[in-house]
Amino acid sequence: MRKVRPTPRRVAKAQRAGSSIVKGASLRLPPTAAARYNRQLQKLIAEMYRATRVELVRLFESPVAVESHVATDASIASQSRILTNALINRFSALFARAAKGISESMVEEVQTNSATGLRNSLRDISGNITLKTDVLTSGPIADTITASVAENVGLIKSIPQKFLEGVQGAVMRSITSGNGLADLDPYLKDAKGITERRAKNIALDQTRKAYNAINKSRMQGLGVTKFEWIHTGGSQKPRQDHIDMSGNVYSFDDPPVIDQRTGERGIPGQAPNCRCTMRPVLDFGEE
Question: In the chain, what is the straight-line distance between the N-terminal and C-terminal CA atoms, in Å?
Answer without folding.
Answer: 18
